[in-house]
Specification:
Number of strands: 0
Distance between the termini: 61 Å
Number of domains: 2
Largest sheet: none
Order of helices and strands: HHHHH
Structural class: mainly alpha
Shape: elongated
Number of helices: 5
């Protein structure tokens, strides 16, 4: 499927007139560089290979979740401490 899309894209590049040849070449290179990742990788049952492939991804999403949680909890914590109540609640 991806190969068909890439082929149609390259055919379209031949037909268009508003793009110069240098830009068309860059577009062809980018189309050729697209990796086909539809379905599951062959190593789906290999936990070691999966861990290597997704190394760093979990940390990214964990950090995002922690920041989201902090944005939610921070005002609550401030309101509970009456010394900082005026920072969040104004008359």
């Amino acid at each position: 499927m991806i190969g068909n899309i890439r082929s149609a894209f390259n055919d379209l590049l031949e037909e268009i007139t508003w793009m110069d040849d240098a830009t068309k070449n860059v577009a062809r290179e980018k189309a050729a560089a697209i990796t086909e990742k539809i379905g599951y990788p062959e190593y789906i049952m290999n936990n070691t290979a999966l861990a290597e492939d997704y190394e760093g991804v979990c940390h990214y999403y964990t950090a995002g979740f922690v920041l989201l949680l902090w944005d939610f909890l921070y005002p609550i914590l401030i309101i509970r401490d009456r010394r900082f109540y005026h920072l969040v609640m104004t008359p």
